[in-house]
Design a protein that fits this description.
CATH topology: Rossmann fold
Low-confidence stretches: none
Strand content: 5-15%
Shape: globular
Number of helices: 7
CATH superfamily: HUPs
Strand order of the largest sheet: 3-2-1-4-5
Number of strands: 5
CATH architecture: 3-Layer(aba) Sandwich
Helix content: 25-40%
CATH class: Alpha Beta
Order of helices and strands: EHEHEHEHHEHH
Number of domains: 1
Radius of gyration: 17 Å
Distance between the termini: 37 Å
Structural class: alpha/beta
């Protein structure tokens, strides 16, 4: 069965894709260059796609810098050393990013006659983004049913989020059990010129916490 998987180059999307592949899906990987402040994650996505031997890896450019509203698409500083227990949405939130990405995946899935989309979001160890919640994914499935030719003809598009209820440690344990090479991935929001992680942004902190709780050494820091 074909499935379109959103592949960012991070450990979450890598693990979600590997789980879908294990479950019998043929992977068509979609990576979006949205004008993010660094291209390291695009390089990681290519490495991950090769490691998974996906059927096809499609890269699309949708430059969201003109829209703005995020420290990931502007010169605004990326927050560091933030209290992750504070229930606010940080400046690294990119307005409607997952809505845009899923819409692109939905379009490609319809062309491929695929009825499944895979995304690596999770609603536990994350930065409070509203488009990582189960109600958002449910709403997108309902949208797909009325917004596409396939949908109005009775085909149902499913959005699979196999990591939705996983902690970061659970994700890493699952990927390790599948034999994934996490040295291929990239998580940092604000790496240095050599691509080395800052270790202080939300994504770095969550990654470090996950590896520590999983009892696994992060190969990027070994």
């Amino acid at each position: 069965m074909p499935a379109v998987v959103l592949l960012s180059g991070g450990l979450d999307s890598y693990t979600a894709a590997a789980i879908a592949q294990r479950d019998g899906f043929e992977l068509y990987a979609l990576t979006v260059n949205y004008g993010q402040r660094h291209l390291r994650e695009l390089e990681s996505a290519r490495r991950v796609a090769r490691a998974l031997a996906v059927v096809r890896h499609l890269e699309l450019t949708v430059d969201l810098r003109a829209v703005g509203g995020s420290s990931l698409t502007s010169a605004e500083p990326v927050p560091r050393d933030r209290d992750l227990n504070v229930a606010d949405i940080p400046s690294t939130y990119v307005p409607a990013r997952n809505t845009i990405f899923l819409a692109l995946a939905l379009g490609w899935a319809e062309v491929l006659d695929a009825r499944d989309i895979v995304i690596g979001v999770n609603a536990l160890d994350y930065s409070g983004y509203p488009d990582c919640r189960p109600e958002f994914l449910d709403a997108f499935e309902r949208l797909a049913a009325i917004a596409t030719k396939a949908g109005v003809e009775g085909a149902r598009t499913r959005v699979h989020a196999p990591l939705l209820t996983f902690s970061k440690a659970d994700i890493i344990r699952s990927g390790t059990a599948l034999g994934l090479d996490y040295s291929l991935t990239h998580s940092c929001y604000d790496p240095d010129a050599q691509g080395r992680p800052c270790r202080r942004c939300d994504s770095c902190v969550l990654r470090a916490k996950g590896f520590e709780e999983a009892g696994v050494v992060d190969p990027l820091l070994a």
